[in-house]
Design brief:
6 helices; alpha/beta
């Protein structure tokens, strides 16, 4: 069984997330893809996401017609800072023998050794970089296994959407 894990704030979920999901299911041959909204990113402690109930409702609406995709609320239920290692340990326990693929933004690939318990993290899943249009080819540091998703890079981000809603430009 091949399982995809797609973590993020999804604040808000948008078309780019859905296109990435479609590409991941098709390119990796995933049986299921789990969207896992984070409670709080360890890399963005100053950014408080929208209320959990709002993000979850938007995800439910966005994924209503997606047969291979589902929402896993474990990081929100755990609360506090969300660490990928905790989530991957849970998946390894719940789905023994499954191939785990963890989707990340291509800009995060080079920083994987900075993630919490990076050595064990590298053993639990293959990492799949999601490219941004015009972005550099991701470099996966040893001991991480990784590949790059080919399809559907879309030049939109949740931070851009939030900034537009507030009436200012992002980045």
């Amino acid at each position: 069984m091949k399982l995809g894990i797609y973590g993020g704030s999804f604040d808000p979920v948008h078309l780019g997330h859905l296109l990435v999901a479609q590409a991941a299911v098709e390119e990796l041959g995933l049986n299921r893809l789990f969207f896992i909204p984070t409670a709080q990113s360890p890399f963005k402690p100053e950014n408080k996401p929208a209320p959990n109930a709002v993000r979850l409702q938007l995800l439910r609406l966005a994924l209503a017609e997606k047969m291979n995709c589902e929402i896993d609320e474990q990081e929100i239920k755990r609360g506090g800072t969300s660490y990928t290692i905790e989530t991957l340990r849970d998946y390894a326990k719940r789905f023994p023998g499954a191939e785990l693929f963890y989707l990340i933004g291509a800009d995060n690939a080079a920083k994987l050794n900075e993630w919490h318990e990076a050595g064990e993290l590298a053993k639990l899943a293959e990492f799949v970089a999601v490219p941004r249009p015009g972005g550099a080819v991701p470099n996966f540091p040893s001991p991480f296994r990784g590949r790059t998703l080919k399809g559907f890079p879309l030049g939109v981000s949740s931070s851009q959407i939030r900034a537009r809603v507030k009436g200012r430009s992002a980045d």
